[in-house]
Write a structure and sequence with these properties.
The structure is a single chain. The chain folds into 2 domains: 18-104; 106-180. The protein has 6 helices and no strands. It has helices at 19-32, 39-63, 75-93, 108-128, 131-145, 150-171. It is flat, with a radius of gyration of 23 Å.
């Protein structure tokens, strides 16, 4: 007769065996987390978010915002951009009392490189279609940012644009730049 899984004790390698171990893990995670950034970083981050929102407002107005009954291409970007401005200003005002994020570290460059690849994707999609930039973006995110193996990165980089093509171009007949 085999014991029930709920009654089987968990080994030290697999996880905690008693309730006190959860508290120990939480304490360990607290000790290992990066140092807090502080209020100056909150002000800088809030200001950057607000400036990004202002740029979005300007860009969305150039697209035309339309009206509530007849929205134009800039309607949703305008709404999102206004939200960014408001949230950025709230963060600036609460810089001393808000929780602090992590200090910038080597891992922060991963976020910056992810943003840079999204900007490159956006710039390339209008020039050469979405298929090649999407494959390159997927490969970079899987291999470099996700630390996936070569095989899964290549397969993902090929399959993701194909799936998006089938969904958006074939099934939904959307008007996105594509070459194939």
């Amino acid at each position: 007769m085999t014991p029930d899984r709920a009654e089987t004790p968990v080994t030290a390698e697999a996880g905690p065996t008693e309730a006190g171990s959860v508290d120990e893990l939480v304490a360990q995670w607290e000790d290992e987390k990066p140092p807090a950034s502080g209020p100056v970083t909150n002000v800088a981050t809030g200001a950057l978010v607000a400036l990004l929102g202002v740029a979005g407002v300007i860009g969305s107005r150039s697209l035309g915002v339309g009206s509530a009954s007849e929205p134009a291409p800039g309607t949703w970007p305008l709404i999102i951009s206004i939200g960014l401005v408001v949230l950025g200003l709230v963060l600036v005002m609460r810089a001393r009392t808000a929780g602090f994020g992590e200090k910038f570290s080597v891992d922060s460059w991963r976020v910056a490189s992810g943003l840079a690849t999204m900007i490159a994707f956006t710039l390339l999609i209008g020039e050469i279609g979405f298929e090649i930039p999407a494959a390159l973006l997927a490969f970079f995110w899987l291999k470099v940012l996700g630390n996936e193996g070569w095989r899964s990165s290549v397969i993902g980089a090929v399959l993701m644009p194909v799936v998006f093509y089938l969904i958006f171009v074939t099934a939904l007949s959307t008007n996105i730049p594509h070459r194939f």
